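Continuing from the previous page of notes. For each protein in this section, the sequence appears first, followed by its structure tokens. Read the first protein now.
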Amino acid sequence: MATKWTKKRRSRRIQAVVFVIALAVFLFSGYQLLKIYLEYKKGSDEYDKLADEAARILSEAEEGQGAEDGGGAGSSPGQKAETGPFPWEELDALMRGENEDYVGWITIQDTQIDYPIVQYTDNDYYLAHTFEGTENAAGTLFVDSNIPEGMEGKNVIVYGHNMKNGSMFAGLKKYREDDFYEGHKTFRVNTKTGFYTYEIFSVSVVSPDSDTYTLGFEDDVAFLDYIARMQERSLHDTGVTVEAGDKIITLSTCVNKNVDRLVVQAKRLGK
């Protein structure tokens, strides 16, 4: 029969084992959190560097437009300089020098969305690779590979992760709030053909297999019917009219524990 002293010794051993296990779990969890943080930081640092490079070109272009026509962000493209390329051509050349898959740059004020957009031969690669090709959970914003016209498609679908640190397309979640939508009804997308302002006509939460992700339309009637459905399910009554000849963009990210998709749709202003 075990003595009182023996029982105490066993109890201490059990407590020591439990402590060691708890410490191991704590250290492992800490390591995992540090690993995630460093991965997030690596991705953020890369995109911050790219944004700095793009900012110079974009700011110079806006200054030129402002001096020429009093414009600014969202103004129609300015005139070509006497020498040198259009500013959007300069941005395109700069980014294509970094990555030949580059197709555009998107900026949404008061969010972290200030990123390059790419298009590849499949929709998997950039889910887990940054713009510079590094493996990273942040991935890159990318156009659906099934759109042959790229950024000039009728419905340009752009995918991006909803990152916990607020990066990539996490900022789209703000559009669920009325106040944010009211103050941010437009955003800008720069492509090799120009600087374009897009006006939001629908914000919705849909399933991954929703008809929201329709790529092509048989005719104008089918396109306008699609627009009507998108506006019917919108969280906001935008009052924006989309015409048959318009081009639209669909920004998509995961929400509700990756079950649903938050979609922000807008039409390009100007042809």
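Done with the first. The second protein uses the same format. Note its length before scrolling.
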Amino acid sequence: MFNKWIFLVIGTTLFNVVLEAQPHQDTVRLTLPEAEKMFLDSNLQLLAGRYSIDASKALILQARLWPNPNLNVSHGLYSGELNKFFPTGKNDETTVSLSQLILLAGKRNKQIKLAQAGAQLTEYQFFDLLRTLKYTLRTDFFHIYYLQQSSKVYDEEIKALQQIVTAFNEQAGKGYISEKEVIRIRAQLYTFQGEYSDLLSQINDLQSELRLVLQVKPTLYITPAVDSAVMDMLDPGRYPLNTLVDSAYHNRTDLQIAKAGTNINKLNYNYQKALAVPDLTLSVGYDEAGSFLTNYYGIGAAIDLPFFNRNQGNIKSAKAQVASAIATEKGTQATVEENVSASLQKAFTQQKLYRTIDPKFYGDFARLLHEVVVNYQKRNISLLDFLDFYDSYKQNTLQLNSIQFNRVSAFEDINFYTGTNFFN
């Protein structure tokens, strides 16, 4: 009677597949395109990046502006001869001068080019942020999906073992089951509960990161919807290495940032050399009565003499920064090539492992698990043998989910390192 009751408990658990807890009231099911659209529409970091681009472009306008002319007007404050403030008429003195700074050595054009290069750098930084956040979104999306698939196995096993433990407690002291067997089952249950708790913590951490990327409320629980048939069709041999590397050269925003940094430092070096040339100030003036002539009109020019300060230190510093930027660019380029090559190799490795798995394996394992339950009911195997097989079922299911995620993650690495969505 007891064996039949245990069989009924376990069989009900298995044939219901997963007795999941009631879904969270804020649970939302999202496909990857839906998640990406939500990300592009709502992410505040992207919004801040767009404002930074606008701010950088405004600096181009500022660089195009000419220096303002300077107007100087002076009038006598007090006449000692007349003992009078602000004298007028023949006894007053008024001077007027107007001056304009003229930038020499192409400083204005060089400032404009620097501002334009700075705005372009800001755009590259924005798209690099977009690339990084999108990679985080996609990898978290798939990671959560496969971890949730694994969590179903734990949920399944824990509920079955909890019911078995309850049944054992009801039969305690009646001699049906040994104390050793009861302790073993409880230990197995505690192990599963501990592993399940760690898995849920990992899912919650990824959920938190994904919510931040999507900018949704903290109470939302995201359930990714993945098309397994589309995932199965992914093939790393679809694109040759040269195609991937060429795409990375054109689309990797961190490489574009390095190139823009080199360009900015070269422009700054030219600008610093131009600053060594003094600027010219032209002026016109009027003096009412302070010169040897009354109502004197004059024209003048002024320029600094570059005897001491020829901007030598800034020029030397800018030259060194150019060399540093060139080295950084070459290093980034080498990194790009290595990233693409390594990610493609990883994808081939994961693809090979994935293809070794028999598609019928999971179904066969589930069928065998049912047969194990039947054999346990007939007392052809012990309860411990059943639990060992049950644990093996869990381990294999977790391994399958891990293999699938690692394979998808390898394709996402290729997308990230090439800057192109070759695999969707």
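What the second structure shows: The longest strand covers residues 94-102. The domain at 69-102+277-310 is CATH 2.20.200 (Outer membrane efflux proteins (OEP)). We return to this in next week's lecture.
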